[in-house]
Amino acid sequence: MKPLRAIVIGITIWIIGVSVFTLSSYITILEDAKQQANMLLFISIIPLVWYGSRVYYRHDGKTHGYWIGQTFFLTAVTLDALITVPVFIIPNGGSYYQFFTDLGFWFIGFEMITIAVLYWYINTGITNTK
């Protein structure tokens, strides 16, 4: 595994994900802006992680998708703890506890890992078993 490459891709995924989340809260279609932002983030994570996995596996097809997905997720968790919560959540009355115990947060994390694993099985895992 090339950890630096996976972390850089994870940072890129996080930046785009936070941007999508933030922008979607300004354009309200649903009555609940938080739910709308979470739904849009949930949907946008699918192509972001898929493409991030594709970029990672251009040069390394041996690392299992679980480890890549976990690296993407742990990178996002670290950046959320260092940037998202203090800059966006706490000023709006939230807390670290509320952010990291939110079921949607963990669901999106599970989604990130699952998509990376699926990418690995579909595009690289089969060729590794031959």
Describe this structure in words.
The chain has helices spanning 3-26, 33-56, 65-89, 96-100, 103-128. It has five helices and no strands. Helix content is 80%, strand content 0%. It is elongated, with a radius of gyration of 15 Å. The model has no long low-confidence stretch (mean pLDDT 91). The chain has 130 residues and is mainly alpha-helical. It has one domain (3-128).
Topology:
Blueprint: H1 3-26, H2 33-56, H3 65-89, H4 96-100, H5 103-128
Shape from CA axes?
A: elongated
Element-level helix/strand string:
HHHHH
Proportion of residues in extended strands: under 5%
Calculate the mean pLDDT score and round it: 91
Can you describe this structure in just a few lines?
This protein is mainly α. It has helices at 3-26, 33-56, 65-89, 96-100, 103-128.
Give a quick set of tags describing it:
mainly alpha, 0% strand, single chain
